[in-house]
Predict the 3D structure of the following.
Amino acid sequence: MAYVDFLSVVHKSTKRDYVARVTEFPKAEAATLAKQWGKDYWDGDRRTGYGGYSYDGRWRKVADAMVAHYGIKPGDRILDVGCGKGFLLYDFMQAVPGVEVAGIDVSRYALEHAKEEVRPFLREANAAKLPFEDKSFDLVISINTLHNLFCYDLHAALKEMERVGRRNKYLCVESWRTEEEKVNLLYWQFTCEMFCTPKEWEWWFAHTGYTGDHSFIYFE
């Protein structure tokens, strides 16, 4: 297991007004709408989610970095747990023609509005029970997803990632190191259920036997 940062290049490109997040729209109402994982979250108002999540190529640099780091080659199988609209999987297909991709998400809306080229490879499922055979994938990833699970489903999801991966695994979750970062996370998030420090996350990895790589994003 190693700490490998693939995500800062995307995460830090967004400017955030944390105070406005909790003053411009009732936060409880926004979270309630976001947790339906429908249009309000993906393509509605910015105050209840992404404010319109469309393909813009931002994930290609992440795909390229993972391809280089893990030595992905044609014929390798990649699973994205919490794939959303499948943009990162599409970029993997562009980066390595001939790679096989699969993705799962709980959001039917996201899957129905996924990138057309990857839509046939996506399915509605829960991270706590992946519909795949043991050791099915050369790379299993989960980005900004597992912190949205309650602890019992997180426990199962980490074990599931370990079960279906036969080689490399990587996940990224939200975390906090200071009281300021904790407050910013609480202000900004709509769907987070696991508010863990890095040491707490590392405890979960060890407790569940997760052996893959990881990184954290912080709201600085």
